[in-house]
Amino acid sequence: MNKERVKDNFASRRNFIKSAGILTAFTIIPRHVLGGVGYLAPSDQVSLGFIGVGRQGVGLKNSFIGLEKARIVAASDVYGRKLKSFAEQANEYYAKKNNTNVQKSCQEYLDFREILERKDIDAVVIALPDHWHAAAAVRAAAAGKDIYCEKPLSLSIAEGRAMVEAARKYNRVFQTGSMQRSWAEFRQTANIMRNGLLGDIKSIKVSVGAPPVPYDLPKQDVPADLDWNRWLGPNEYVHYNSRIAPNFNEQPAWADWRLYKGIGGGMVTDWGAHMFDIVQWGLAMDMSGPVAFNPPSTDNKYLNFTYANGIQVSHENFGISNAIQIIGSKGKLEVQRGKLVTDPVSLKDYKFGESDKQVYFSQNHYQDFLDAVQTRGNTVAPVETGHRTATVCNLANIAYELGRPLKWNPEKEKFIDDKEANKLIGRQLKKEWKV
């Protein structure tokens, strides 16, 4: 290339850059000009990787996939047929939406750490069994991913605190899957409580199921496409049973891992993470928690716990499953999914104004997360909130296990003068997965 041509090329490039600078300074180019009808710039979407694609993972897929800001690009699971089915569903959705035959929008991975290594993935959705939450979330935060993690946030108090610290250290947006906070009946309940419309609270009853039991299911052969050792992950080995990790076609019901110690926390954490969570929200205890726990005894039929202000909560079936009953000096309410009953009736649809206390407003739990990822803002159920609610549930299970009254310091997150109880704050994880 001669010198004149080099000079001409340089001048042409300089003029192009100058012209482009003028254009961008004064002109906003319409999106459809840049990429055609329906084009979305990369900054307009959040690339999601799903970690765990069982029944809950599929449900979360259905919640995220239709949102314009979301794009599911990867999925991981140790059960082959579940992973394949999930990816096929996602790919079929995008192929149909984009009117294309491209079938590989969602890539499949056995090891979720491969998802964390991808620089093009903005956030992960963790829908693993509870014993995996901390190990996955801490590593996701360190990899620079924002995190949506299912409830209950952790299987132990120490693991929950590790998740909080990791999210803060790496400045990650975090949404706990406590989606009831984005539902109108529970938001109304929290606002009623915050504004004292029931008067002085006399009793709070939370009706959820039992604490976990020891794993006692019979041994069965492991399916050929399930990596059982990977499923156990941080936990020591226990034998396989299909009720723990069912095939969708054989058992469409929820997996029973949540019922057994060391894997789940029983219904106390499974449903308690929803219902105790609303109590925490309404009492403005998202940064704290109860100070005393009393298991069933000759003096009290039901486990109860008490806050520093004297308000007591009872783990008690009052006739409605998975619900909350609150009785105050001026009224009463009962709330469950899809139904809020108040006395006086006017409280049900009471309109709160600017002068009233009002909790964080979210109508869509998943959109709320995506918005926060893009704005670097807060979420309706951030990591500390999820941790504090899971702590209430885990504390209740410890009280059930020890069978005696316990005093808790929510600031230090330690039991008071109880070495045996303090040993149960954490649990032993395999070296590879320590947090």
TrEMBL record:
UniProt entry keywords in alphabetical sequence: Membrane, Transmembrane, Transmembrane helix
Molecular function terms, GO-annotated: nucleotide binding
What SUPFAM superfamilies does the database record attribute to this sequence?
Glyceraldehyde-3-phosphate dehydrogenase-like, C-terminal domain, NAD(P)-binding Rossmann-fold domains
Q: Where are the transmembrane segments?
A: 20-41
InterPro entries given in the database record:
Gfo/Idh/MocA-like_OxRdtase_N, Gfo/Idh/MocA_oxidrdct_glycsds, Gfo/Idh/MocA_OxRdtase_bact_C, NAD(P)-bd_dom_sf
Task: Name the PANTHER family on file.
Answer: BCDNA.GH03377, OXIDOREDUCTASE FAMILY PROTEIN
| Protein name in UniProt | Predicted dehydrogenase
Source species of the chain: Pedobacter insulae
